Amino acid sequence: MHYVKEWRRLIDSKIFFWAQKKSCDGLLNARLYRKQIHTIIEVRSRKFLSAFSSSIEIADINTGSVIHTPARRGSATFQSLEAYSRTKKRQIVEVTIPDRIPDIVNFVKRVTHRHPNGQEELLYEN
């Protein structure tokens, strides 16, 4: 039980981005979420990575998923961008930033609402 509390505290201290749209789609289509309206914020990846490369951490698993045969988690689950690029061959699933993102508006490409019927409503585009 102690491990679960520590893991929750760790992931709650981070801001998560899906590395690929299909992962986001999978979450939003999950039974628990599919009947809700979701706000999706897309960021300009190159600009974002350039600005935060020293604090970005990468995971090659869905770190919040513990339902279907969860992957092992531990201190090596999140790796710096530099360490990940040297050691990992697996596809990036999540990109994280610790704590907060100052002035995120400078990186936003698009904001949409995804409705339960799959329709996307554009709220903002830059």
Can you walk me through this structure?
The chain is of the alpha+beta class and 126 residues long. It has one domain. Helices cover 27% and strands 27% of the residues. The chain is built from 4 helices and 7 strands, in the order αβαβαββαβββ. Strands 1-5-3-4 form a 4-stranded antiparallel β-sheet. Strands 2-6-7 form a 3-stranded antiparallel β-sheet. A hairpin with a 5-residue loop joins strand 6 and strand 7 (120-125). The chain is globular, with a radius of gyration of 15 Å. It starts with a helix and ends with a strand.
Bin the strand percentage.
25-35%
Number of domains: 1
Describe the global form: globular
Summed over residues and divided by their number, the pLDDT gives a mean of 87
Report the uncertain regions: none
Number of helices: 4
Q: For the terminal residues, how far apart are their CA atoms? A: 45 Å
What share of residues is helical? 25-40%
Across the major sheet, the strand order is 1-5-3-4
Number of strands: 7
Sequence of secondary-structure elements: HEHEHEEHEEE
Which key features would you list for this structure?
single chain; four-stranded antiparallel β-sheet; 27% strand; alpha+beta; three-stranded antiparallel β-sheet; globular; 126 residues
